[in-house]
Amino acid sequence: PPAVRSRPFQCTTIERFSIDIGTR
Hints:
The chain has 24 residues and is mainly α. Helix content is 75%, strand content 0%. The chain is built from two helices and no strands. It is flat, with a radius of gyration of 8 Å. The termini are far apart.
C-alpha cells in the first residue's frame, strides 16, 4: 500500500517486499 511506503520507518522491509513482488 502507498500509505505504508510513505512511512520513513520500515522502509527497507517495505521496499524489499515491494521489489520482491514487483520483480516477480
